[in-house]
Amino acid sequence: MGEAERWLGTAVNSETLFYGVFGDPVRHSKSPAMLGRAFQAAGLNAVYGAFHVRPEQLRGAVEGVRSLGFRGVNVTIPHKVHVMEYLDEIDATASLAGAVNTIVNKDGRLVGYNTDGIGYVRSLKEETGARIEGSSILMLGAGGASRGVALALASERPARIWIANRTKDKAVSLAEELSRLTEAEGIAWEGIDHIIGKVDFVVNTTPIGMDPNTHETPIEPSMIVPGTVVSDLIYNPLITKFLRDARSRGAVIHGGLGMFVYQGAYAFEYWTGLSAPVEAMRSEVLRLLDNAGGGGA
Ligand code: NAP
Q: Which domains does the chain have, with CATH numbers?
């Protein structure tokens, strides 16, 4: 009998390793099911729970990881920035992104990583085959997710990144940070139509089009140029109106599911040192989305 079969169906016992996600809110999270499936597929005696941690409880929750010997946790909205002050070490990618989404407990020493950006880039490359090096990129939005993704894209040596945001100041300040890695410019939302025809990639990092507002789209379909790679961080729905419009205009499209799966896969790999069972993880998330009728990510 293999390790996986031995573990399947057995109960939590005194050898079980503990993992989880801290968020506020957290009940919508698909991480427990996805990582639970990963542990099961890898035959590990481990469980992953969702913990509703309010901002004022974050310090105590992180201390709990240390004192209870949790092997690792993910951290989601709104804790990704504040959690950094409670950790012993922050890896270079997370420092650059200014946010942590994965904590690894290395014998009581808590190390913070950011797997969002690298998860996005891996999914973009694998699913589109597109080359980022030397390309030009337009990002829509300058919020938390945009930051991690923009910094990971900038590390792939594109020729130029434009950031367009409703609040222009945020786009300008993110572009300033990116300019350490590549040429970057922050522009007002109204400037999109001057730039969109010049770029290889357009990436939506705003929540426009996310369930339940699935009829919305960040830009007019007529602005999309055939042959552009059009990407959306949203995975609920799997194909947003923005992507449907882009596909009908002859663009190559890329949705947010792969980013979600790979950020979890990198966390699994940091925690266990094993290759993540990516396909099992992806099918678990698809099963949940399907059961929810595509809603409730
Ligand atoms: P956030 O920090 O709240 O940032 C939202 C961004 O969208 C801001 O730049 C905001 O502009 C802009 N925005 C919001 N509503 C807008 C509107 N009506 N018109 C124009 N701009 C608007 O959110 P986030 O955490 O970055 O998340 C953004 C999206 O990414 C969400 O849909 C989330 O589900 C998705 N996401 C996906 C993954 C994944 O694994 N696939 C991971 C993380 C996030 P202002 O600055 O002007 O407010």
A: 3-114+258-291 (3.40.50.10860), 117-256 (3.40.50.720)
> Tell me: the pLDDT tens digits for 153-166?
999 999 999 999 99
Q: What is the pLDDT of residues 181-194, one digit of tens each?
A: 999 999 999 999 99
For CA atoms 226, 228, 232, 238, give the dihedral sign. Answer: positive
Q: Whose CA is nearest to atom 37 of ligand 1?
A: 233
Distance between start and end Cα atoms, the chain: 36
CA distance 210 to 295: 9
Q: Which residues pair with 105 in a beta bridge?
A: 110
User: How far are the Cα atoms of 30, 32, 176 from residue 40, in angstroms, in the given order?
Assistant: 16, 12, 43
Q: Among the residues of 129-229, which ranges form H helices?
A: 144-154, 168-178, 192-195
Give the mean pLDDT of the chain.
94
How many angstroms separate the alpha carbon of residue 234 from the centre of ligand 1? 9
Sign of the CA dihedral running 236, 237, 241, 242: positive
Q: Which structure tokens are listed for 41? A: 């597929």
What does the alpha-carbon distance between residue 48 and residue 115 come to, in Å, rounded to a whole number? 17
Residues 6+ apart with CB under 8 A from 193: 223
- Which is the closest atom of ligand 1 to the Cα of 257? 41
